[in-house]
Task: inverse folding
């Protein structure tokens, strides 16, 4: 009798496993056909010279030449790559800080909170490249923006502050980065819509009794930020970091993406395109892996 | 409760209580006012920063060319005109693009969300061998930039064939570029635009639903698929709605996939990105000159702003009505890693 029961349980488990596979089968098929196959193909292509003729395309194995070309002979690629990686780090950090800060403010109670939240979320709906892409793509607009900047730069306050800070002479390179972020605060703000919401939902799960207890024990708001808020939402930090990095690399308006697309569409050099994409992909993967591993060491799980 | 009481407190009462508390009440009150004032300034500034480009586009699009060059006029036009809208409307063939974009966005969003819901449910509710491995594959889908595989996908669909059958029969491969089919196939396979993210969100949502309902259904003899359709699907309405909205909205503004797979037809996003270069020749043709008109930068800017507004206007209207569905579902999933 007992044996029968166990067998039946195994049967149910098996049935559930089968239906589980049935449920995810669209993904498996799609993943194999539209992700793995192209990935392998493009990896192969990156070692080939690809020529597209009428009705067929041919691949001729040329070894590491495409990679060699990308690093040693292409004028702008190595520079764009290092700049891209550096920018990725700086911007992800800036977006995290900004969205955390805004989430902290939005977590307080005040009139019009829903409206402010809606406005901060608006860029998620509208961005995805269209508005940004159009404005930067156009040469006419570029020249006009340059003209506007030239005519207004002598009245800006930030410029004066920059001059003052630069004369101090300490960490000029670091200051430059900070200035750049401040100049591009709009980009940071419109890239942090989802992160703000995720942080906000994390903040709202922290029981207020914790803060009350800390306050009674004589904890200041600053201390409870470090001792309660940060540990409690550290797992959210990881999610947000991951999302931000991925979101940032996917942006098709970054210089490196434009470069890759340019090689594909203008030069029709598919092998080199594949090589460059793979280099970029590996860099992104390494970046995500290393930073996530570092952050996950500091994550604190309350449960 | 105590807050409303404090607000209604009369001045004399406030003074008495302030004295009793040794000046603490006044200090606290001033602090509160100061904090909320600073908060207001900060948030107002940031909201303005986000809205400013849109507001500026609205004002520029309603100006006549005289107003643009008039140094006195900054944001409010002296005379509101709609010529720019008429020109931009014709220049990007708006009505045709709108219909095409609407159809493709809705159908793609439906297919993608349906598939992602199935997969997300499978990941959330079933135990099967290699589950961790397949979920890692979802992460890979999220991580791989579409540009990495774009070249080979491009060639894949340019010289499309199923196991070489078609080539065997006719000696040629099928050119699926400029047809809608590849993109639908990709959507069916959950590898469309940001589909990994939808799977992730939907899985999170299903994981938070208690399992009792499901077990009760199994006990009553319902199969797994029927349980999913009749019991779990109605529970998951909020997340499905919001994933649908995201899929719709992102498809609406997407240029990358649209340009790659749907090159032949007119879509709003692609016609917008080629708008600045094409508008001159459109105006030239409209006036019967035969040659493109050279537009001044200011006028190009005006028309471009108008075109952008026309493209995003439906999205803004949608957002006004469905704001809750967009924002709250994300917080309701309780994302964790």
Result:
């Amino acid at each position: 009798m007992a044996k029968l029961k166990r067998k039946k349980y195994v049967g149910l488990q098996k049935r559930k496993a089968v239906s589980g596979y049935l449920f995810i089968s669209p993904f498996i098929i799609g993943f194999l056909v539209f992700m793995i196959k192209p990935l392998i193909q493009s990896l192969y292509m990156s070692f080939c010279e690809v020529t597209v003729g009428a009705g067929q395309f041919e691949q001729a194995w040329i070894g590491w030449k495409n990679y060699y070309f990308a690093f040693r002979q292409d004028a702008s690629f190595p520079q764009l790559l290092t700049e891209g990686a550096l920018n990725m780090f700086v911007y992800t950090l800036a977006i995290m800080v900004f969205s955390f800060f805004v989430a902290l403010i939005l977590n307080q109670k005040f009139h019009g909170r829903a409206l402010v939240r809606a406005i901060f979320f608006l860029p998620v709906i509208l961005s995805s490249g269209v508005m940004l892409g159009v404005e930067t793509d156009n040469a006419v607009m570029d020249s006009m923006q340059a003209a506007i900047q030239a005519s207004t730069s002598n009245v800006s306050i930030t410029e004066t502050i920059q001059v003052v800070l630069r004369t101090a002479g300490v960490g000029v390179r670091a200051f430059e980065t900070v200035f750049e972020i401040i100049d591009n605060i709009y980009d940071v703000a419109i890239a942090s819509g989802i992160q703000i919401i995720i942080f906000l939902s994390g903040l709202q799960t922290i029981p207020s009794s914790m803060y009350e207890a800390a306050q009674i024990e004589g904890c200041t708001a600053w201390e409870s930020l470090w001792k309660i808020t940060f540990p409690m939402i550290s797992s959210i930090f990881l999610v947000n970091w991951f999302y931000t990095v991925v979101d940032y690399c996917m942006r098709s308006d970054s210089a490196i993406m434009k470069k890759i697309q340019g090689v594909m569409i203008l030069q029709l050099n598919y092998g080199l395109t594949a090589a460059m994409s793979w280099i970029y992909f590996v860099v992104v993967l390494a970046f995500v892996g290393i930073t996530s591993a570092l952050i996950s060491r500091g994550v604190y799980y309350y449960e | 409760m105590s807050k409303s009481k404090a607000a209604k407190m009369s001045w004399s009462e406030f003074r008495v209580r302030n004295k009793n508390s040794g000046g603490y009440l006044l200090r606290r009150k001033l602090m509160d006012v100061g904090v909320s004032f600073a908060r207001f300034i900060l948030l107002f500034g940031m909201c303005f920063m986000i809205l400013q480009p849109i507001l500026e586009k609205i004002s520029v699009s309603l100006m006549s060319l005289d107003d643009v060059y008039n140094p006195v006029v900054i944001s409010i036009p002296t005379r509101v005109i709609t010529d720019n809208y008429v020109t931009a409307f014709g220049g990007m063939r708006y009505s045709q693009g709108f219909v095409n974009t609407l159809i493709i966005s809705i159908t793609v969003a439906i297919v993608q969300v349906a598939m992602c819901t199935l997969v997300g449910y499978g990941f959330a509710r079933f135990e099967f061998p290699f589950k961790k491995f397949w979920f890692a594959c979802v992460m890979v889908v999220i991580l791989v930039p579409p540009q990495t595989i774009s070249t080979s996908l491009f060639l894949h669909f340019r010289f499309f064939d199923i196991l070489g059958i078609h080539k065997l029969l006719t000696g040629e491969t099928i050119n699926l570029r400029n047809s809608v089919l590849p993109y639908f196939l990709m959507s069916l396979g959950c590898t469309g635009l940001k589909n990994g993210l939808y799977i992730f969100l939907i899985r999170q949502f299903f994981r938070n639903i208690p399992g009792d309902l499901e077990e009760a259904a199994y006990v009553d003899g319902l199969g797994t698929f029927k349980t999913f359709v009749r019991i779990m699907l109605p529970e998951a309405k909020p997340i499905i709605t919001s994933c649908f909205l995201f899929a719709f909205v992102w498809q609406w503004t997407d240029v990358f996939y649209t340009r790659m797979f749907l090159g032949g037809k007119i879509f709003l996003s692609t016609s917008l990105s080629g708008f600045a270069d094409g508008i001159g020749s459109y105006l030239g043709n409209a006036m019967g000159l035969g040659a493109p008109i050279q537009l001044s930068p200011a006028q190009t800017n005006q028309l471009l702003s108008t075109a952008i507004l026309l493209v995003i206007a439906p999205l803004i209207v949608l957002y006004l009505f469905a704001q809750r569905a967009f924002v709250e579902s994300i917080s309701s999933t309780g994302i964790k890693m």
Summary: The first strand of chain A starts at residue 48 and ends at 53. Chain A touches chain B through 94 residues (CB under 8 Å).
